[in-house]
Design brief:
single chain, 143 residues, alpha/beta, TIM Barrel, four-stranded parallel sheet, two-stranded antiparallel ribbon, 5 helices, 48% helix
């Protein structure tokens, strides 16, 4: 079972753990895996000012079993994880950084609403695959 980091639109004042600390503790306590949704981390960064690099660094990387990418929409000044748009350039950039060390982890592009023409979906898949392939090339070039 994989537990996913969520997109958030507010914070809880009574929280005494960061989201990454909570997810790490949850994974340890339940022996489950983690699904890293990079778009959700980006939405949280934009909406709440959270540091994506610190969030990803604090996660238990050995438990990450899948990565999700998605598109979001802006609604009333907030980014909302709508799965209805192409993956934005910033999310692609964070995915590229993540794959530099974790290119072996499967990736899924979520697109649930306002489905585009097949060619758009295929372009998104090809872009993800190119990032993975580049990370593999860089890894094997260093051996």
């Amino acid at each position: 079972m994989l537990i996913e980091n969520i997109s958030r639109y507010f914070t809880f004042e009574e929280s005494n753990l960061s989201e990454a600390e909570f997810l790490a503790a949850l994974c340890d306590e339940t022996d489950c895996g983690l699904l890293l949704d990079i778009n959700n981390a980006y939405v949280n960064h934009c909406n709440l000012g959270l540091d994506i690099a610190a969030f990803i660094a604090a996660l238990p990387h050995g438990r990450i079993g899948e990565v999700h990418l998605a598109g979001h929409s802006e609604i009333d000044g907030l980014l909302v994880d709508t799965h209805s748009r192409p993956v934005c350039d910033e999310v692609w950039s964070w995915y590229r950084r993540f794959t530099e060390h974790h290119a072996h982890i499967p990736c899924l592009i979520e697109w649930d609403n306002d489905l585009p023409h097949w060619s758009v979906l295929l372009e998104q898949q090809r872009r993800a695959q190119a990032i993975i392939d580049n990370a593999h090339e860089q890894y094997y070039a260093c051996l």
